[in-house]
Design a protein that fits this description.
about 700 residues; about 45% helix; eight-stranded mixed beta sheet; 3 domains; Chitobiase, domain 2; single chain; TIM Barrel
Length: about 700
């Protein structure tokens, strides 16, 4: 009864606004809406006030008793500074109300705000309350809209303890794109553990994603192909059911993707299934084999039992082997596009019993625009491109002109890199989502790929969150505004230092591009600088190595300063796992520069030692020895490289196990261990060089000293 009285009392305390009905004009008041640094940025916002929070915290009050609305309340109560209403009698309050409730009608009438039809499914309104203690109301027409309004409120609680405040704007907000999803690669190394997956779902929902699409090649535990799923390396049906139920609470639909054409080597390499392939033990199914469609049907029938959503994704990208084996004659006679699209149509017919609407990757079909119209009209084309091109309109035209529903698929540019290239990622996402909205695409499926098998998902959040924001916000999203807002919105960092740390790593990537290197690629991290390939890289990298390292070390320093400031202020930074991953990425980029500098120091020190020794001046012998010890000793350059691989390997293992199952970890650890052992061995062998010098004052040939490697 007390809670009902508290709710009803709010009606008479709501602010009577003078805002034009149904719309809001952007205000330049202090603080302004832009200064809120909300992600995604709200569509309409004005008149922000700052309300101090008492030591008792903020009470959450729900006007509706539905379970879905209660879930929004429970999620909001996890925010520091927010408490259950039953623990409070008065003070700052957050009211969650459905638009049909009496209190919501009163609030909207006093505020002179209405819901447009476009706001119905996921939109919400936030207005101030002028009750004793202050607060705000979140009003929506659906449980989903109420949930998203609550996610925005989380970002409006700032500070902690006696310094906590609630920022209270007046706003209306709703998404530009109906489908805002993330495709997460589970088939090239990392396979998330359930604890991480639930954190991933919560975090995606907090930034208004509503679709999650796990990518399977061989990592679902199918009863029909059990040999392909390595023990500990596949999601089980029971885990899938648990994840589906968990995601539903956060208004996220799971769309399973099972590759159904290409990218199937890890199935077809098994002799039991190899006969289904275009080529022996290859990666592409043979369209003409009698067993391929039944096998696809079995996979998706099993998926349909545990993923009840309306969609399924059949993949079908990068079918490079098509026409090189069993379908060679068909492709030569009919053309690659027709053979490919005909098989997609057959997959569609095979999967009709599942009742799913099918998504497919659009890369192959895009090359046969005249044939795209032959596809079933209920299929959804997902056009993917990952470069920061100025326009993607021509890529979308074949699908939209043919009447197919179309989604855009940008990417976070994490693949093959020690840390994502966010210059490329943000440019790609911004332009692709902009063009998708302009041309009528219904959704966005942002993508994470783990091609090298060693990616850490927590490094990806900067690009992932921008994707969600760009799909929610109308038009072209600003990279600069987002970058400036990210540290506050994602980590609760008011100092700006975390955003600056990301900018520092973006500068490092840009520097490598400027040096005619791709960017901070894994290959540069692992390559032996004494090898022929390493020497080619060194010629380009060494002129910028010092600046590269300064960028990376600046990121480390800014991160440390942000953490220290939070500790001093009694604040807790949010999403700390991503901060650990940021430091790991910075240290790996720094090590790339260090490794090539150290190898160069070794060669120069050795050459200088030889030059001094050749003078025959015995007074130079100590200097010669010092130069040789520069190469390898307690503080030698070889030991610097050894230590880098070993110590970064420890950080990497910690990051991996935070996110993933142990499956595949040994493969990646072997690379760190092997690299550390190589430089440990070289350091030990260098003892021979020093020993020979002191005994004979002669030099061991460079190749024998393992200084120069000729491979």
């Amino acid at each position: 009864m007390r809670l009902r009285l508290f709710v009803s009392s709010l009606v008479f305390a709501c602010v009577a606004g003078s805002v034009p009905a149904g719309s809001l004009a952007q205000s330049s008041g202090a603080p302004g809406c832009a200064e809120l640094h909300l992600v995604p940025a709200p569509r309409e916002c004005k008149d922000v006030t700052v309300q101090p929070v008492s030591k008792d915290g903020i009470a959450v009050v729900v006007a509706d008793t539905s379970e879905e609305d209660k879930l929004a309340e429970h999620d909001l109560e996890q925010t520091p500074g927010i408490v259950k209403a039953a623990q409070r009698k008065d003070g700052v309050a957050i009211l969650l109300a459905r638009s049909g409730s009496a209190i919501a009608k009163e609030v909207l009438a006093h505020s002179n705000l209405t819901f447009d039809p476009a706001m119905h499914d996921e939109g919400y309104i936030i207005v101030p309350l002028r009750q004793k203690g202050g607060g705000l109301a979140v009003i929506a027409e659906t449980p989903t809209g109420l949930f998203y309004g609550a996610q925005t409120v989380k970002q409006l609680v700032r500070g902690s303890g006696k310094d906590a405040v609630l920022l209270v704007p007046t706003m209306r907000d709703w998404p530009a794109m109906s489908h805002r999803g993330l495709s997460d690669d589970w088939s090239r190394g990392p396979l998330p553990n359930m604890e991480f997956l639930k954190r991933e779902i919560r975090t995606l929902a907090a930034y208004k994603y509503n679709i999650f699409s796990p990518y399977f090649e061989h990592t679902f535990a199918y009863a029909s192909t059990p040999a392909a799923a390595f023990p500990g390396g596949a999601m089980t049906p029971d885990e899938a059911k648990e994840l589906v139920a968990y995601a539903a609470q956060y208004h996220i639909t799971i769309i399973p993707e099972q590759e159904a054409f290409g990218h199937l080597h890890h199935v077809l390499k098994f002799e039991t299934y190899s006969h289904l392939g275009e080529t022996p033990h290859g990666a592409v199914l043979a369209p003409g084999d009698a067993g391929t469609l039944p096998q696809i049907g079995e996979w998706f029938a099993e998926l349909a039992k545990v993923f009840p959503g309306p969609y399924a994704h059949i993949g079908a990208d990068e079918t490079f082997e098509l026409g090189l084996g069993r379908t060679r004659a068909d492709v030569q006679q009919q053309g690659l596009g027709k053979v490919y699209l005909d098989f997609l149509g057959k997959i569609h017919d095979e999967l009709k019993p599942t009742g799913k609407q099918l998504l497919f990757w659009g890369d192959v079909a895009e090359n046969s625009p005249e044939l795209v119209g032959t596809l079933p009209k209920d299929m959804i084309a997902v056009s993917w491109h990952y470069d920061a091109a100025p326009s993607f309109e021509k890529n979308l035209e074949p699908f939209l002109k043919s009447g197919l529903e179309t989604w855009v698929a940008p990417g976070v540019n994490n693949w093959n890199r020690v840390y994502p290239n966010n210059n490329e990622a943000l440019g790609n996402i911004r332009a692709f989502v902009r063009d998708g909205q302009k041309m009528g695409a219904k959704g966005m499926l942002n993508t994470v790929w783990n091609d090298d098998g060693d990616a850490i998902f927590d490094e990806n959040w900067f690009g992932v969150v921008f994707g969600g924001a760009a799909a929610w916000q109308p038009g072209e999203s600003s990279e600069a505004v987002y970058t400036a807002s990210f540290g506050q919105a994602f980590h609760g960092d008011p100092t700006g230092k975390i955003s600056q740390a990301h900018e520092a790593l973006m500068a490092a990537h840009a520097l490598m591009r400027k040096a005619d290197l791709y960017d901070a690629q894994n290959g540069y991290f692992w390559v032996d600088p004494f090898s022929a390939e390493g020497k080619q890289v060194a010629a380009k990298l060494l002129p910028v190595a010092a600046e590269l390292r300064l960028d990376a070390e600046k990121a480390m320093t800014l991160l440390a300063e942000a953490r220290a400031a939070a500790k001093q202020d009694g604040r807790k930074l949010e999403n700390e796992e991503a901060l650990d991953a940021l430091e790991l990425g910075a240290r790996r980029i720094d090590f790339i520069g260090l490794k090539f500098q150290a190898a160069d120091d070794c060669e120069k020190a050795y050459a200088e030692a030889q030059k001094l020794a050749a003078t025959g001046d015995k007074t130079k012998w100590d200097e010669v020895a010092t130069l040789l010890e520069t190469v390898s000793s307690n503080n030698g350059r070889m030991q610097d490289i050894r230590d880098g691989y070993a110590l970064i390997g420890n950080l990497y293992k910690d990051a991996w196990l935070r996110d993933n199952r142990p499956y595949w970890l040994a493969v990646n650890e072997a690379r760190f261990d092997s690299a550390a052992q190589l430089w440990s061995t070289r350091g030990n062998q260098w003892e021979m060089v020093l020993s020979v010098w002191w005994d004979t004052h002669k030099f061991v040939p460079p190749a024998d000293a393992s200084l120069l490697v000729t491979n």
